[in-house]
Specification:
Helix content: 25-40%
Largest sheet: 7 strands, mixed
Radius of gyration: 18 Å
Number of strands: 11
Shape: globular
Length: about 240
Protein backbone atom coordinates (compact mmCIF):
# COMPACT_ATOMS: atom_id res chain seq x y z
CA UNK A 1 0.00 0.00 0.00
CA UNK A 2 1.12 3.57 -0.69
CA UNK A 3 -0.26 6.71 0.97
CA UNK A 4 -2.93 8.84 -0.67
CA UNK A 5 -1.92 12.50 -0.39
CA UNK A 6 -4.45 15.18 0.38
CA UNK A 7 -3.67 18.71 -0.87
CA UNK A 8 -1.91 19.77 2.34
CA UNK A 9 -0.03 16.51 2.95
CA UNK A 10 3.74 16.34 2.60
CA UNK A 11 5.38 13.78 0.36
CA UNK A 12 6.61 10.78 2.35
CA UNK A 13 10.33 9.99 2.71
CA UNK A 14 11.84 8.37 -0.37
CA UNK A 15 13.02 5.43 1.75
CA UNK A 16 9.39 4.34 2.11
CA UNK A 17 9.00 3.76 -1.66
CA UNK A 18 8.04 0.27 -2.79
CA UNK A 19 10.60 -2.12 -4.18
CA UNK A 20 7.96 -3.60 -6.53
CA UNK A 21 7.14 -1.65 -8.59
CA UNK A 22 10.49 -0.01 -8.03
CA UNK A 23 10.12 3.42 -6.49
CA UNK A 24 6.36 3.86 -6.28
CA UNK A 25 5.95 6.22 -3.34
CA UNK A 26 2.52 7.86 -3.16
CA UNK A 27 -0.58 8.92 -5.09
CA UNK A 28 -2.66 12.08 -5.24
CA UNK A 29 -5.65 13.44 -7.12
CA UNK A 30 -4.01 16.47 -8.74
CA UNK A 31 -0.57 17.62 -9.84
CA UNK A 32 0.04 20.72 -7.74
CA UNK A 33 2.96 22.81 -9.04
CA UNK A 34 4.36 23.65 -5.60
CA UNK A 35 4.27 19.99 -4.62
CA UNK A 36 5.94 19.17 -7.94
CA UNK A 37 8.81 21.52 -7.14
CA UNK A 38 9.19 20.08 -3.65
CA UNK A 39 9.22 16.60 -5.16
CA UNK A 40 12.08 17.35 -7.56
CA UNK A 41 14.17 18.78 -4.75
CA UNK A 42 13.82 15.43 -2.94
CA UNK A 43 14.38 13.10 -5.88
CA UNK A 44 10.70 12.36 -6.58
CA UNK A 45 8.89 12.70 -9.91
CA UNK A 46 5.35 12.10 -11.24
CA UNK A 47 4.62 9.44 -13.84
CA UNK A 48 1.11 8.19 -14.53
CA UNK A 49 -1.36 7.34 -17.28
CA UNK A 50 -4.35 9.34 -18.44
CA UNK A 51 -6.83 7.27 -16.41
CA UNK A 52 -4.65 7.01 -13.28
CA UNK A 53 -4.29 9.24 -10.24
CA UNK A 54 -1.01 11.14 -10.00
CA UNK A 55 1.64 8.56 -9.07
CA UNK A 56 4.85 9.72 -7.41
CA UNK A 57 8.11 7.78 -7.86
CA UNK A 58 11.60 7.64 -6.34
CA UNK A 59 13.32 4.56 -7.83
CA UNK A 60 16.48 2.97 -6.49
CA UNK A 61 18.89 2.93 -8.28
CA UNK A 62 18.58 6.15 -10.27
CA UNK A 63 19.78 6.69 -13.84
CA UNK A 64 21.90 9.81 -14.30
CA UNK A 65 24.08 11.27 -17.02
CA UNK A 66 27.10 13.09 -15.69
CA UNK A 67 27.82 15.89 -18.14
CA UNK A 68 31.52 15.01 -18.27
CA UNK A 69 30.61 11.42 -19.23
CA UNK A 70 28.44 12.22 -22.26
CA UNK A 71 29.44 9.82 -25.03
CA UNK A 72 29.61 11.10 -28.59
CA UNK A 73 30.02 8.36 -31.18
CA UNK A 74 32.03 8.98 -34.34
CA UNK A 75 28.86 9.17 -36.43
CA UNK A 76 27.17 11.57 -34.01
CA UNK A 77 30.26 13.77 -33.86
CA UNK A 78 30.19 13.99 -37.66
CA UNK A 79 26.50 14.96 -37.55
CA UNK A 80 27.11 17.62 -34.89
CA UNK A 81 29.83 19.19 -37.01
CA UNK A 82 27.54 19.19 -40.04
CA UNK A 83 24.81 20.96 -38.07
CA UNK A 84 27.34 23.47 -36.79
CA UNK A 85 28.87 24.20 -40.19
CA UNK A 86 26.15 23.84 -42.81
CA UNK A 87 23.24 25.80 -41.34
CA UNK A 88 20.55 23.40 -42.55
CA UNK A 89 19.31 23.12 -38.97
CA UNK A 90 19.05 25.74 -36.26
CA UNK A 91 19.28 25.04 -32.54
CA UNK A 92 17.13 27.08 -30.17
CA UNK A 93 16.50 27.26 -26.44
CA UNK A 94 12.93 27.91 -25.32
CA UNK A 95 11.74 29.01 -28.75
CA UNK A 96 8.48 27.07 -28.29
CA UNK A 97 8.39 25.10 -25.05
CA UNK A 98 4.75 24.06 -25.42
CA UNK A 99 5.34 22.80 -28.96
CA UNK A 100 8.18 20.60 -27.67
CA UNK A 101 5.96 19.16 -24.96
CA UNK A 102 3.24 18.39 -27.48
CA UNK A 103 5.75 16.69 -29.76
CA UNK A 104 7.06 14.61 -26.84
CA UNK A 105 3.46 13.68 -26.01
CA UNK A 106 2.82 12.07 -29.38
CA UNK A 107 2.58 8.27 -28.92
CA UNK A 108 5.68 6.34 -29.98
CA UNK A 109 5.42 3.50 -32.52
CA UNK A 110 3.58 0.61 -30.89
CA UNK A 111 2.03 2.83 -28.21
CA UNK A 112 -1.60 3.86 -28.09
CA UNK A 113 -1.28 6.63 -25.53
CA UNK A 114 1.22 8.82 -23.70
CA UNK A 115 1.84 9.77 -20.08
CA UNK A 116 2.16 13.46 -21.04
CA UNK A 117 -1.45 14.53 -20.66
CA UNK A 118 -3.16 17.90 -20.25
CA UNK A 119 -2.38 18.17 -16.53
CA UNK A 120 1.31 17.42 -17.11
CA UNK A 121 1.47 20.02 -19.89
CA UNK A 122 -0.20 22.66 -17.76
CA UNK A 123 2.02 22.03 -14.72
CA UNK A 124 5.29 22.01 -16.63
CA UNK A 125 4.10 24.98 -18.65
CA UNK A 126 3.75 26.84 -15.35
CA UNK A 127 7.28 25.78 -14.37
CA UNK A 128 8.45 27.18 -17.71
CA UNK A 129 6.68 30.48 -17.00
CA UNK A 130 8.56 30.52 -13.68
CA UNK A 131 11.86 30.01 -15.57
CA UNK A 132 12.26 26.54 -14.03
CA UNK A 133 11.54 24.33 -17.04
CA UNK A 134 13.28 24.64 -20.39
CA UNK A 135 13.49 23.14 -23.85
CA UNK A 136 16.29 22.65 -26.36
CA UNK A 137 14.98 22.46 -29.92
CA UNK A 138 16.24 21.40 -33.35
CA UNK A 139 14.54 23.15 -36.28
CA UNK A 140 14.80 22.69 -40.03
CA UNK A 141 13.43 25.92 -41.50
CA UNK A 142 10.07 26.30 -39.72
CA UNK A 143 9.70 22.62 -38.82
CA UNK A 144 10.52 21.35 -35.35
CA UNK A 145 12.35 18.06 -35.96
CA UNK A 146 13.65 17.17 -32.50
CA UNK A 147 14.11 18.35 -28.98
CA UNK A 148 13.85 17.76 -25.27
CA UNK A 149 12.56 19.45 -22.14
CA UNK A 150 13.17 19.22 -18.43
CA UNK A 151 13.31 21.00 -15.09
CA UNK A 152 16.31 23.09 -14.04
CA UNK A 153 16.87 23.65 -10.32
CA UNK A 154 20.16 25.11 -9.21
CA UNK A 155 22.99 22.93 -10.53
CA UNK A 156 20.79 19.96 -11.49
CA UNK A 157 18.83 19.35 -14.69
CA UNK A 158 15.97 16.84 -14.53
CA UNK A 159 15.38 15.44 -18.00
CA UNK A 160 11.73 14.70 -18.72
CA UNK A 161 11.30 13.67 -22.35
CA UNK A 162 12.82 13.94 -25.81
CA UNK A 163 11.69 13.23 -29.35
CA UNK A 164 13.05 12.94 -32.89
CA UNK A 165 11.40 13.40 -36.25
CA UNK A 166 14.76 13.08 -37.99
CA UNK A 167 17.63 10.71 -37.25
CA UNK A 168 19.74 11.89 -34.28
CA UNK A 169 17.70 15.08 -33.75
CA UNK A 170 17.15 14.39 -30.04
CA UNK A 171 20.86 13.56 -29.64
CA UNK A 172 21.74 16.92 -31.19
CA UNK A 173 19.48 18.63 -28.66
CA UNK A 174 21.10 16.64 -25.85
CA UNK A 175 24.58 17.62 -27.02
CA UNK A 176 23.59 21.29 -26.86
CA UNK A 177 22.02 20.81 -23.42
CA UNK A 178 25.20 19.17 -22.15
CA UNK A 179 27.27 22.11 -23.38
CA UNK A 180 24.95 24.64 -21.71
CA UNK A 181 25.13 22.73 -18.45
CA UNK A 182 28.91 22.34 -18.60
CA UNK A 183 29.23 26.09 -19.15
CA UNK A 184 27.22 26.65 -15.95
CA UNK A 185 29.11 24.07 -13.90
CA UNK A 186 26.19 21.61 -13.81
CA UNK A 187 27.49 18.08 -13.46
CA UNK A 188 24.36 15.89 -13.49
CA UNK A 189 21.29 15.27 -15.66
CA UNK A 190 18.63 13.14 -14.00
CA UNK A 191 17.40 10.49 -16.44
CA UNK A 192 15.04 8.82 -13.93
CA UNK A 193 15.04 5.25 -15.24
CA UNK A 194 17.45 2.95 -17.05
CA UNK A 195 17.16 2.55 -20.81
CA UNK A 196 19.62 1.09 -23.31
CA UNK A 197 19.46 4.33 -25.32
CA UNK A 198 20.54 6.44 -22.33
CA UNK A 199 23.25 3.96 -21.45
CA UNK A 200 24.70 4.27 -24.95
CA UNK A 201 25.06 8.02 -24.35
CA UNK A 202 27.00 7.58 -21.12
CA UNK A 203 24.26 7.48 -18.49
CA UNK A 204 24.69 5.13 -15.53
CA UNK A 205 22.89 4.06 -12.40
CA UNK A 206 23.70 5.37 -8.94
CA UNK A 207 22.02 4.65 -5.62
CA UNK A 208 19.01 6.70 -4.59
CA UNK A 209 20.91 7.79 -1.48
CA UNK A 210 23.80 9.13 -3.58
CA UNK A 211 21.37 10.90 -5.92
CA UNK A 212 19.48 12.55 -3.05
CA UNK A 213 22.78 13.68 -1.53
CA UNK A 214 23.59 15.38 -4.85
CA UNK A 215 20.22 17.14 -4.76
CA UNK A 216 20.72 18.43 -1.23
CA UNK A 217 24.07 19.84 -2.27
CA UNK A 218 23.27 21.22 -5.73
CA UNK A 219 19.60 22.22 -6.15
CA UNK A 220 19.94 25.24 -3.88
CA UNK A 221 22.89 26.66 -5.81
CA UNK A 222 22.93 29.38 -8.44
CA UNK A 223 20.92 28.36 -11.47
CA UNK A 224 21.75 28.15 -15.18
CA UNK A 225 21.47 31.56 -16.95
CA UNK A 226 18.93 30.26 -19.47
CA UNK A 227 17.89 33.67 -20.77
CA UNK A 228 21.34 34.31 -22.21
CA UNK A 229 20.83 31.33 -24.55
CA UNK A 230 17.33 32.21 -25.81
CA UNK A 231 16.21 34.59 -28.52
CA UNK A 232 18.47 33.41 -31.34
CA UNK A 233 19.82 30.23 -32.91
CA UNK A 234 22.66 28.71 -30.88
CA UNK A 235 24.44 26.41 -33.32
CA UNK A 236 27.65 27.87 -31.91
CA UNK A 237 27.22 25.63 -28.88
CA UNK A 238 28.19 22.67 -31.07
CA UNK A 239 31.65 24.08 -31.82
CA UNK A 240 33.26 22.06 -29.04
CA UNK A 241 32.33 18.73 -30.66
Amino acid sequence: MIPWLEPTDRLPPVESALKVPNGLLAASEHLDVDRLLAAYQRGIFPWYGAEDPVLWWAPDPRMVLMTNAFKVSRSLRKKLRQVHNRGEHSIWVDRDFEFVMRACAEPRPGQESTWIGAEIMESYGELHRRDLAHSVEVWRDDALVGGLYGVSLGRVFFGESMFSRETDASKIALAVLVQILRNAGVSVIDCQQNTRHLGSLGAREISRAEFCAMLRRDTAGEGVPWKQYSGKARNDLLSGY
